[in-house]
Amino acid sequence: MNIIDVLYERGFIEATTHDEQLRRHVTEDKPVTCYIGFDPTASSLHVGHLVPIMSLAHMQKNGHRPIALVGGGTGLVGDPSGKTEMRKLLDLDQVEQNALGIKEQLSRFIDFGEADGAVLLNNADWLVGLKYIEFLRDIGRHFSVNRMVKTESYRVRLESEDGLNFVEFNYMLLQAYDFLKLYDKLGCRIQMGGSDQWGNIVAGIDLVRRMRQVETYGITFPLVTTSSGAKMGKTAKGAVWLDAERTSPYEYYQFWINTDDGDIPRFLSLFTFLPIDEIHQTKTLDGSNINSAKAILAFEATKLVHGKAEAIKAYEASAGMFGLKRLPDEILPSSSIPRQTQKIDDASVPSAYVDITELEAGIPVFKLYHSAGLAESGSAARRLISQGGAYVNGNRVKSDSYIVTASDLEDNEIVLRAGKKKFCKIKIKK
């Protein structure tokens, strides 16, 4: 199947430029080279980056060459796209440090090992040393300010209270120059990015056409939202990171298993490599079979980011805590998820520790919920209890005056539950 059809079928594409010519390019000129830029504003990527990451991985799986471009140079300027205020400017040391973390995470999805395979580049290599006057004369003369200010990313900022900083105004020129450099260096003729990058991508296409008389192409991805309309990848705690130090494998697994029922087929298509015909069959699932599909989504997504061993630990811990039964073999059979739960790995479940003397003296249950991170405050813990959502060792807490003591220990631990899906094990400090 044409890779463009694959991306359409799995829900990756919102818009393309020159659709017929693009399809012909990936068919007749195979293998083709494409690229996506990643902004190094943090040392870790998050769930919101998964659509572009997975699209590059699909390109590689279909025999094409992906380029992951870390924006070490453009990150010093800041992309105004999708922002109503200026991004915080980073220094070169911060950007380089962040770029190292991003490269390591991308390597989990894309194979950079082959000599003629995927390529990882940093645009600081050609942007930081640019000579300003030469850049303006050679590149800047191809850009119309009138056209630039009409693009959505610039227009929104010009209408905002903070306006558009001149440093940011140069961003479109730099991203377009990246496309030109990648065409010259590696014959790259496809740029992909989020829907907010349309103006920047079109500017790059226009620059390559003007300077090299070659047709290049653009693909944009939709902004992924949940069925409730919320932005994908955001939780009450903030972003869901791909870095295990920021979001543990267990927490990452729990994020996916909490997916709304209506989002299961779409998220399986976008965030796993499971066959699309198997995914289509999940549209008719109900009852406990929906929960099985959620477990497989969570397992497959966690396996991609943290590896199979950590995914199994998270799955078995979650299955043990929630009492998940053996998964039916016929649901998404291509998944490598264990169909029979095994021993629970305690290290995968969040834990908190107390002194035995403190526990013997007694701890108010609402304070324990707060200190364990299951409630934002003592008052929030009291509300949780009054609403019937607090459990100690599986028993509902009936009053916020309940005192947790050493008599509540079972196998030297106490299991707290908040609502249906948040757990914490209270253990004794050694």
Plain-language structure description:
With about 425 residues, the protein is an alpha/beta fold. Helix content is about 40%, strand content about 15%. The protein is built from 19 helices and 15 strands. Strands 1-6-5-2-3-4 form a six-stranded mixed beta sheet, with helices on both faces. Strands 9-15-14-11-12 form a five-stranded mixed beta sheet. Helix 18 (about 365-370) crosses helix 19 (about 380-385). The mean pLDDT is about 90.
How would you briefly describe this protein structure?
This protein is an alpha/beta fold. It has helices at residues 3-9, 19-28, 50-61, 92-106, 124-127, 132-138, 145-148, 152-159, 166-169, 171-186, 198-212, 249-257, 264-271, 276-280, 288-306, 308-322, 356-361, 365-371, 378-386; strands at residues 15-16, 33-38, 65-70, 119-122, 190-194, 217-221, 234-235, 238-239, 351-354, 363-364, 390-392, 395-396, 403-404, 413-418, 422-428.
